[in-house]
């Protein structure tokens, strides 16, 4: 199926910030407000010195005129001591909030990754069939990292700088309206530059995230297909393809950082120019004797100009800090929106209410539920009147007039009917794309049918909870997936409470015990990278042993022996025959020799069953199966 990705183009939605803050507060209802208070206190403390400076300079002016240093010192020393105390408390506040932010940020990201992963486990198979795996991985790496930067750095800095700016602004108004108006003209210029340069920077930072996701996806694809690349000497073309992707990433990153790196110096120099303008303007006001307007009601003097210059530095410096955080916030919002898009994906629907339970069968045939494992399973069917029915799990699977399409209007199966009685072995034969694997995907409800019925022991499978349905099915896929861990742990994946003895017995049944015992660590041999230290056939044998230990009543074997040589296949086939005894088995195979002993063989062509019957019957009919078996034409 073609892959699409509707989350590959993030935007900066302001509503995302509200959602992030809501999640932060709900996760840490005490620590987040405490951290905000610490930030507010440290910010306010950094702005207060302007008032102290004005008082001290004013006192020194009076002392200079009167020469009474003793009286001046009595006023100055307490103010300086109080200011030093506030700075000390501010230092403690900053230390506390930085530690709290580290704890909150990492804890928040841990919970976010957990929610993302938990939600991802509940997504339907279709989601992974239609989204690039490399891009899904970038949610956990690139997007989480941009969210970390925003939560840990940008939001605290933005809050602190905003508080300082507002506090200093009101202090300026308190001292002088005229000087504040002059400052505001400079600030307007700073905001204009920030909007022009910052807007371009934000646009390219978002594009950088997209390009980075593409690069990661391409690299992952090349790593997975490295053998194919080398076999076909495709290295030059791969390098050329990567060069295009890498060049796009370079261009987007270069433009983003070129804008971002130029913004800071420009804002800083506007602040320096503004500092000079304030100094000159203040001097002119003092010399001209202009009447000052301010809440304090103080005339223009050194005691106003000196703290005003200091506040100008503070004001412009914090405006610069705010402008510097715009890019990180935009990137964080874009990353968070992608993360939320994944978290908000609709989970796999499950309207089933029939469950699988351990059962006991009395002599009179009455079925009751057992709290202990009995080896007998039954379907527990609750009714609206409160009564319960129990149906023994026998493995009777029937598809009746089933139609199905992965995409609307493009049918894959047409009016397919399959009847598998308990203990029967049903084989599907046909060319690639005929619909063989699709039928098994419908039995375990990886996908739901468009029309028709699928019944399991007489129960519509839509009524059976998906987890219980799948627990009753054992599947061996053509593409084997082994997980990081020991051989024993990979076999036990089929039944988590299986003992070592059960796992070893399953391996012997599948014919895997012989090669496992010859591994360096035997059953405790560590596997990694999808079992790359094993041959394809050995990996397939472990997958078969995994299905065997699950001991399900229904088995689905999708090209289960396709990667095993003829000699090993004979060993496995004997084990498979034992495994299949008393079970309903669906077999998909290209090797027709593996399906000869099937009870029913169905030949599919373009989503339709064109022939069905035993091996002998189909040979007698001399139709498509006969031609396939005798080599008159190939499956493909």
**Tertiary shape:** elongated
The poorly predicted ranges are 1-10
- Counted beta strands: 16
- Through-space gap between termini: 19 Å
Number of domains: 3
- Radius of gyration, in Å, reads 36 Å
What percent of residues are in strands?
Answer: 5-15%
Q: Count every helix, treating DSSP H or I runs of 4 or more residues as helices.
A: 19
- Please give the CATH architecture of the largest domain: Up-down Bundle
The first-level CATH class of the largest domain is given as Mainly Alpha
* Oligomeric status: single chain
Q: What characterizes the major β-sheet?
A: 6 strands, mixed
Integer average pLDDT: 82
Q: What strand order characterises the main sheet?
A: 10-13-14-7-15-16
Topology at a glance:
Elements: H1 15-27, H2 31-47, H3 49-66, H4 69-121, H5 125-129, H6 133-175, H7 177-224, H8 226-231, H9 235-288, H10 302-343, E1 355-361, E2 367-369, E3 377-382, E4 388-392, E5 397-407, E6 410-420, E7 425-430, H11 436-443, E8 451-456, E9 459-460, H12 466-471, E10 473-476, E11 485-486, H13 487-492, H14 500-510, H15 513-517, E12 526-527, H16 536-550, E13 554-558, H17 566-580, E14 584-588, E15 600-605, E16 608-613, H18 615-621, H19 624-630
Parallel strand pairs: 7-14, 7-15, 10-13, 13-14
Antiparallel strand pairs: 1-2, 1-3, 3-4, 5-6, 5-8, 8-9, 11-12, 15-16
Helix pairs in contact: 2-4, 2-6, 3-4, 3-10, 4-6, 4-10, 6-7, 6-10, 7-9, 7-10, 9-10, 14-16, 18-19
